[in-house]
Write a structure and sequence with these properties.
single chain; globular; mainly alpha
Length: 101
């Protein structure tokens, strides 16, 4: 097992070799420093994003900016669970439709 930090100098300079190792050796990697998990495989991320009963933003999801302190966190629709996410997505759907753009 290797040590991984998403904010290390190596990860910031060129994350792709680290991502490959994560996918191969530790697809679900516990980040002790942040008391959270890094999922490195697309399918795992996809399933987690659809399973709001198990993986919720309530009391757990934190923006990377808040963890890294590199830039101030900005509230994002992507960090909300249904029904709030669904309500806001419906509100912005019209202006960003193909016909409007």
């Amino acid at each position: 097992m290797f040590a991984y930090s998403p904010f290390s100098a190596d990860a910031i300079r060129d994350p792709h070799p680290l991502y490959r190792r994560l996918r191969d050796e530790a697809p679900a990697y516990y980040l002790e420093e942040f008391d959270g998990w890094a999922l490195s495989r697309f399918e795992d991320n996809w399933r987690a994003s659809e399973d709001t009963a198990t993986f919720s933003s309530v009391g757990g999801t934190t923006a990377a900016q808040a963890l890294s302190k590199v830039e101030p966190p900005v509230p994002s629709i992507n960090q909300l669970d249904p029904p709030d996410h669904t309500r806001l997505r419906q509100a912005v759907r019209g202006p960003f439709s193909r016909a409007r753009i």
